[in-house]
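job 3f2a | input accepted
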Amino acid sequence: MSEEKLLKVSELTIHYHTVEGIIKAVRNISLEVNVGDSLCIVGESGSGKSTLGLAISLSLPKNAVVVSGSILYKGRDLLKLKTSEVGRYRGKEISMIFQDPATTFNPLFTIGEHLTDILRHHFGMSREEALERAVELLKMVRLPDQARILHAYPHELSGGMLQRAAIAAALSTNPKILIADEPTTMLDVTTQAQILDLINSLKRELNLTLILITHNLGIAGEVCSRTAVMYAGTLLEEGPTEDIILNPLHPYTAKLIKAVPIITKTQGRLSHIPGVLPDLRNPPKGCPFVDRCELATPECSASQPEYFRVGGVRRVACILYGGEHE
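job 3f2a | predicted structure (326 res):
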Protein backbone atom coordinates (compact mmCIF):
# COMPACT_ATOMS: atom_id res chain seq x y z
CA MET A 1 0.00 0.00 0.00
CA SER A 2 1.23 3.45 -0.86
CA GLU A 3 2.11 5.73 2.05
CA GLU A 4 1.31 8.88 0.08
CA LYS A 5 -0.81 11.20 2.23
CA LEU A 6 -4.12 11.82 0.52
CA LEU A 7 -6.15 13.31 3.36
CA LYS A 8 -5.14 15.00 6.60
CA VAL A 9 -7.73 16.21 9.11
CA SER A 10 -6.21 18.45 11.78
CA GLU A 11 -7.86 19.62 15.04
CA LEU A 12 -11.30 19.77 13.41
CA THR A 13 -14.14 21.17 15.53
CA ILE A 14 -17.71 21.45 14.20
CA HIS A 15 -20.81 22.85 15.91
CA TYR A 16 -24.47 22.68 14.91
CA HIS A 17 -26.60 25.72 15.66
CA THR A 18 -30.09 24.51 16.60
CA VAL A 19 -33.16 25.92 18.35
CA GLU A 20 -32.17 23.88 21.41
CA GLY A 21 -28.66 25.31 21.54
CA ILE A 22 -25.22 24.78 20.08
CA ILE A 23 -24.35 21.09 19.66
CA LYS A 24 -20.59 20.44 19.73
CA ALA A 25 -20.72 17.52 17.31
CA VAL A 26 -17.02 17.11 16.44
CA ARG A 27 -14.30 18.18 18.86
CA ASN A 28 -10.64 18.51 17.96
CA ILE A 29 -10.44 15.51 15.61
CA SER A 30 -7.16 14.73 13.82
CA LEU A 31 -6.49 11.79 11.51
CA GLU A 32 -4.65 10.93 8.30
CA VAL A 33 -5.61 8.75 5.35
CA ASN A 34 -3.08 7.42 2.86
CA VAL A 35 -3.69 6.59 -0.79
CA GLY A 36 -5.39 3.19 -0.98
CA ASP A 37 -6.30 3.08 2.72
CA SER A 38 -9.52 1.56 4.03
CA LEU A 39 -10.47 3.37 7.23
CA CYS A 40 -13.52 2.60 9.35
CA ILE A 41 -14.90 5.31 11.62
CA VAL A 42 -16.83 3.50 14.35
CA GLY A 43 -19.09 4.74 17.12
CA GLU A 44 -22.60 4.90 18.52
CA SER A 45 -25.27 7.16 17.07
CA GLY A 46 -24.44 10.73 18.09
CA SER A 47 -20.69 10.12 18.18
CA GLY A 48 -20.01 12.62 15.39
CA LYS A 49 -18.83 10.09 12.82
CA SER A 50 -21.38 11.08 10.15
CA THR A 51 -20.63 14.77 10.71
CA LEU A 52 -16.96 14.03 10.10
CA GLY A 53 -17.84 12.25 6.86
CA LEU A 54 -20.04 15.12 5.73
CA ALA A 55 -17.25 17.61 6.45
CA ILE A 56 -14.70 15.65 4.42
CA SER A 57 -17.15 15.36 1.52
CA LEU A 58 -18.01 19.08 1.70
CA SER A 59 -21.66 18.21 2.40
CA LEU A 60 -22.29 19.75 5.82
CA PRO A 61 -25.80 21.19 6.31
CA LYS A 62 -26.27 24.94 6.52
CA ASN A 63 -26.58 25.00 10.31
CA ALA A 64 -23.14 23.42 10.73
CA VAL A 65 -20.24 25.74 11.58
CA VAL A 66 -16.60 24.71 11.29
CA VAL A 67 -15.16 26.37 14.40
CA SER A 68 -11.53 25.42 13.82
CA GLY A 69 -9.21 23.01 12.06
CA SER A 70 -8.38 22.01 8.51
CA ILE A 71 -9.08 19.22 6.02
CA LEU A 72 -6.15 18.88 3.62
CA TYR A 73 -6.81 16.89 0.45
CA LYS A 74 -3.66 16.50 -1.65
CA GLY A 75 -2.31 19.41 0.38
CA ARG A 76 -5.26 21.71 -0.36
CA ASP A 77 -7.44 22.87 2.55
CA LEU A 78 -10.99 21.98 1.53
CA LEU A 79 -12.40 24.34 4.15
CA LYS A 80 -10.81 27.34 2.41
CA LEU A 81 -12.12 26.65 -1.08
CA LYS A 82 -13.96 29.39 -2.94
CA THR A 83 -17.59 28.60 -3.72
CA SER A 84 -16.68 28.25 -7.38
CA GLU A 85 -14.05 25.61 -6.52
CA VAL A 86 -16.20 23.31 -4.37
CA GLY A 87 -17.70 21.52 -7.38
CA ARG A 88 -14.23 20.29 -8.41
CA TYR A 89 -14.05 18.24 -5.20
CA ARG A 90 -17.55 17.53 -3.83
CA GLY A 91 -19.05 14.51 -5.54
CA LYS A 92 -16.12 14.25 -7.92
CA GLU A 93 -12.77 13.80 -6.18
CA ILE A 94 -14.58 12.83 -2.97
CA SER A 95 -17.89 10.99 -3.28
CA MET A 96 -20.32 9.77 -0.62
CA ILE A 97 -22.83 6.93 -0.23
CA PHE A 98 -25.59 7.56 2.30
CA GLN A 99 -27.46 5.31 4.72
CA ASP A 100 -30.75 5.75 2.85
CA PRO A 101 -30.12 5.27 -0.89
CA ALA A 102 -33.39 7.04 -1.67
CA THR A 103 -31.77 10.34 -0.68
CA THR A 104 -29.40 10.00 -3.64
CA PHE A 105 -32.19 10.07 -6.20
CA ASN A 106 -34.95 12.47 -7.16
CA PRO A 107 -38.15 10.35 -7.14
CA LEU A 108 -39.39 12.18 -10.24
CA PHE A 109 -36.51 10.95 -12.42
CA THR A 110 -35.45 7.49 -13.53
CA ILE A 111 -32.17 5.91 -12.48
CA GLY A 112 -30.93 6.37 -16.05
CA GLU A 113 -31.80 10.08 -16.11
CA HIS A 114 -29.96 10.57 -12.82
CA LEU A 115 -26.79 8.75 -13.95
CA THR A 116 -26.65 10.37 -17.38
CA ASP A 117 -27.16 13.86 -15.90
CA ILE A 118 -24.13 13.32 -13.63
CA LEU A 119 -21.98 12.05 -16.49
CA ARG A 120 -22.97 14.82 -18.89
CA HIS A 121 -22.43 17.50 -16.23
CA HIS A 122 -18.99 16.33 -15.11
CA PHE A 123 -17.57 14.97 -18.37
CA GLY A 124 -19.48 16.75 -21.13
CA MET A 125 -20.62 13.44 -22.65
CA SER A 126 -23.26 13.19 -25.33
CA ARG A 127 -26.52 11.49 -24.35
CA GLU A 128 -25.49 8.30 -26.15
CA GLU A 129 -22.05 8.24 -24.48
CA ALA A 130 -23.62 8.83 -21.08
CA LEU A 131 -26.13 6.01 -21.56
CA GLU A 132 -23.35 3.63 -22.58
CA ARG A 133 -21.32 4.56 -19.52
CA ALA A 134 -24.40 4.25 -17.27
CA VAL A 135 -24.85 0.65 -18.43
CA GLU A 136 -21.18 -0.03 -17.61
CA LEU A 137 -21.65 1.43 -14.13
CA LEU A 138 -24.70 -0.75 -13.44
CA LYS A 139 -22.74 -3.81 -14.53
CA MET A 140 -19.87 -2.71 -12.26
CA VAL A 141 -22.18 -2.81 -9.22
CA ARG A 142 -23.53 -6.22 -10.30
CA LEU A 143 -27.02 -5.12 -11.28
CA PRO A 144 -28.66 -7.36 -13.89
CA ASP A 145 -31.07 -6.26 -16.61
CA GLN A 146 -29.48 -2.83 -16.93
CA ALA A 147 -31.97 -1.60 -19.56
CA ARG A 148 -34.89 -2.14 -17.18
CA ILE A 149 -33.12 -0.46 -14.28
CA LEU A 150 -32.19 2.58 -16.37
CA HIS A 151 -35.89 3.13 -17.03
CA ALA A 152 -36.97 2.41 -13.44
CA TYR A 153 -37.90 5.05 -10.88
CA PRO A 154 -36.29 4.78 -7.42
CA HIS A 155 -39.46 3.43 -5.76
CA GLU A 156 -39.56 0.54 -8.24
CA LEU A 157 -36.30 -0.95 -6.95
CA SER A 158 -35.69 -2.95 -3.79
CA GLY A 159 -33.49 -1.44 -1.07
CA GLY A 160 -30.48 -3.50 -2.08
CA MET A 161 -30.85 -2.69 -5.78
CA LEU A 162 -31.31 1.00 -5.02
CA GLN A 163 -28.17 1.01 -2.84
CA ARG A 164 -26.22 -0.58 -5.72
CA ALA A 165 -27.53 2.13 -8.03
CA ALA A 166 -26.46 4.76 -5.45
CA ILE A 167 -22.97 3.23 -5.40
CA ALA A 168 -22.92 3.41 -9.21
CA ALA A 169 -23.84 7.11 -9.00
CA ALA A 170 -21.10 7.74 -6.42
CA LEU A 171 -18.50 6.03 -8.62
CA SER A 172 -19.64 7.67 -11.86
CA THR A 173 -17.26 10.61 -11.35
CA ASN A 174 -14.20 8.38 -10.78
CA PRO A 175 -13.59 9.64 -7.23
CA LYS A 176 -10.31 9.16 -5.38
CA ILE A 177 -12.05 8.88 -1.99
CA LEU A 178 -15.32 7.02 -1.42
CA ILE A 179 -17.10 7.71 1.88
CA ALA A 180 -19.79 5.17 2.80
CA ASP A 181 -22.01 6.29 5.69
CA GLU A 182 -23.75 3.27 7.25
CA PRO A 183 -24.47 1.90 3.74
CA THR A 184 -26.09 -1.34 4.96
CA THR A 185 -28.15 -0.23 7.98
CA MET A 186 -31.50 -0.21 6.15
CA LEU A 187 -30.96 -3.58 4.45
CA ASP A 188 -31.65 -7.18 5.50
CA VAL A 189 -28.74 -9.28 6.74
CA THR A 190 -28.14 -11.16 3.49
CA THR A 191 -28.21 -8.00 1.40
CA GLN A 192 -25.91 -6.27 3.91
CA ALA A 193 -23.25 -8.93 3.34
CA GLN A 194 -23.61 -8.59 -0.44
CA ILE A 195 -23.23 -4.79 -0.34
CA LEU A 196 -20.16 -5.00 1.91
CA ASP A 197 -18.62 -7.57 -0.44
CA LEU A 198 -19.35 -5.28 -3.39
CA ILE A 199 -17.75 -2.27 -1.70
CA ASN A 200 -14.72 -4.37 -0.80
CA SER A 201 -14.34 -5.61 -4.38
CA LEU A 202 -14.77 -2.16 -5.93
CA LYS A 203 -12.22 -0.70 -3.54
CA ARG A 204 -9.63 -3.20 -4.80
CA GLU A 205 -10.61 -3.08 -8.48
CA LEU A 206 -10.69 0.73 -8.70
CA ASN A 207 -7.86 1.39 -6.22
CA LEU A 208 -10.21 3.53 -4.15
CA THR A 209 -9.40 5.09 -0.83
CA LEU A 210 -12.33 4.05 1.38
CA ILE A 211 -13.76 5.67 4.51
CA LEU A 212 -16.53 3.51 5.93
CA ILE A 213 -18.72 4.91 8.72
CA THR A 214 -20.43 2.32 10.91
CA HIS A 215 -21.64 1.61 14.44
CA ASN A 216 -20.55 -2.03 14.14
CA LEU A 217 -16.95 -3.05 14.85
CA GLY A 218 -17.74 -6.42 13.27
CA ILE A 219 -18.20 -4.66 9.92
CA ALA A 220 -14.91 -2.85 10.42
CA GLY A 221 -13.22 -6.23 10.82
CA GLU A 222 -14.62 -7.41 7.50
CA VAL A 223 -13.84 -4.35 5.41
CA CYS A 224 -11.18 -2.00 6.78
CA SER A 225 -7.48 -2.29 7.50
CA ARG A 226 -7.58 0.64 9.96
CA THR A 227 -10.21 1.80 12.43
CA ALA A 228 -10.86 5.04 14.32
CA VAL A 229 -13.23 4.85 17.29
CA MET A 230 -15.29 7.97 18.00
CA TYR A 231 -17.38 8.87 21.04
CA ALA A 232 -19.25 12.08 21.86
CA GLY A 233 -17.50 14.02 19.11
CA THR A 234 -13.98 12.90 20.03
CA LEU A 235 -11.55 10.29 18.73
CA LEU A 236 -10.74 7.79 21.49
CA GLU A 237 -8.63 5.20 19.70
CA GLU A 238 -7.08 4.54 16.30
CA GLY A 239 -4.98 1.79 14.79
CA PRO A 240 -4.94 -1.39 12.68
CA THR A 241 -8.41 -2.95 12.79
CA GLU A 242 -7.19 -6.42 13.71
CA ASP A 243 -5.21 -5.04 16.65
CA ILE A 244 -8.16 -3.02 17.89
CA ILE A 245 -10.54 -5.99 17.74
CA LEU A 246 -8.13 -8.48 19.32
CA ASN A 247 -6.68 -6.08 21.89
CA PRO A 248 -8.85 -2.99 22.46
CA LEU A 249 -7.09 -0.31 24.47
CA HIS A 250 -9.84 2.14 25.39
CA PRO A 251 -12.56 0.87 27.79
CA TYR A 252 -15.21 2.14 25.37
CA THR A 253 -13.75 0.12 22.49
CA ALA A 254 -13.72 -2.99 24.66
CA LYS A 255 -17.41 -2.52 25.44
CA LEU A 256 -18.23 -1.95 21.76
CA ILE A 257 -16.60 -5.25 20.87
CA LYS A 258 -18.59 -7.12 23.54
CA ALA A 259 -21.76 -5.70 21.99
CA VAL A 260 -21.00 -7.22 18.55
CA PRO A 261 -23.09 -10.37 17.94
CA ILE A 262 -21.00 -13.49 17.25
CA ILE A 263 -22.80 -16.62 16.07
CA THR A 264 -21.47 -19.41 18.29
CA LYS A 265 -23.06 -22.16 20.37
CA THR A 266 -21.67 -20.71 23.56
CA GLN A 267 -22.70 -17.06 23.21
CA GLY A 268 -25.31 -15.91 25.68
CA ARG A 269 -27.06 -12.58 25.95
CA LEU A 270 -25.36 -9.70 24.16
CA SER A 271 -23.56 -7.15 26.28
CA HIS A 272 -24.69 -3.53 26.24
CA ILE A 273 -23.13 -0.30 27.43
CA PRO A 274 -25.05 1.12 30.41
CA GLY A 275 -25.79 4.84 30.44
CA VAL A 276 -26.21 7.38 27.68
CA LEU A 277 -24.04 9.70 25.62
CA PRO A 278 -23.27 13.05 27.27
CA ASP A 279 -25.21 16.13 26.25
CA LEU A 280 -23.07 17.68 23.51
CA ARG A 281 -24.52 21.11 24.22
CA ASN A 282 -22.44 20.97 27.39
CA PRO A 283 -19.90 18.15 27.01
CA PRO A 284 -17.82 17.04 30.01
CA LYS A 285 -14.47 18.73 30.62
CA GLY A 286 -12.66 15.41 31.01
CA CYS A 287 -12.92 12.12 29.17
CA PRO A 288 -16.36 12.01 27.51
CA PHE A 289 -16.80 8.35 28.51
CA VAL A 290 -16.14 8.97 32.21
CA ASP A 291 -19.75 8.50 33.41
CA ARG A 292 -20.05 5.09 31.72
CA CYS A 293 -16.57 3.77 32.44
CA GLU A 294 -16.02 1.21 35.22
CA LEU A 295 -12.30 2.08 35.32
CA ALA A 296 -12.76 5.84 35.69
CA THR A 297 -10.78 7.77 38.33
CA PRO A 298 -11.16 11.38 39.55
CA GLU A 299 -8.37 12.32 37.14
CA CYS A 300 -10.56 11.24 34.21
CA SER A 301 -13.07 13.99 35.03
CA ALA A 302 -10.46 16.72 35.42
CA SER A 303 -9.31 17.17 31.82
CA GLN A 304 -9.47 15.62 28.37
CA PRO A 305 -6.83 12.83 28.19
CA GLU A 306 -3.94 13.30 25.81
CA TYR A 307 -3.22 10.79 23.05
CA PHE A 308 -0.65 8.15 23.86
CA ARG A 309 1.22 6.22 21.19
CA VAL A 310 1.13 2.46 21.80
CA GLY A 311 3.25 0.04 19.81
CA GLY A 312 4.15 2.66 17.24
CA VAL A 313 1.00 2.22 15.11
CA ARG A 314 -1.76 2.85 17.62
CA ARG A 315 -2.93 5.83 19.64
CA VAL A 316 -5.42 6.06 22.48
CA ALA A 317 -6.85 8.90 24.57
CA CYS A 318 -6.89 7.29 28.01
CA ILE A 319 -4.90 7.85 31.19
CA LEU A 320 -4.54 4.08 31.65
CA TYR A 321 -1.67 4.27 29.18
CA GLY A 322 1.65 6.00 29.69
CA GLY A 323 4.53 6.27 27.30
CA GLU A 324 4.98 8.54 24.35
CA HIS A 325 2.57 11.46 23.92
CA GLU A 326 1.50 12.22 20.40
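job 3f2a | Residues 189-205 form the longest helix (17 residues).
job 3f2a | closed
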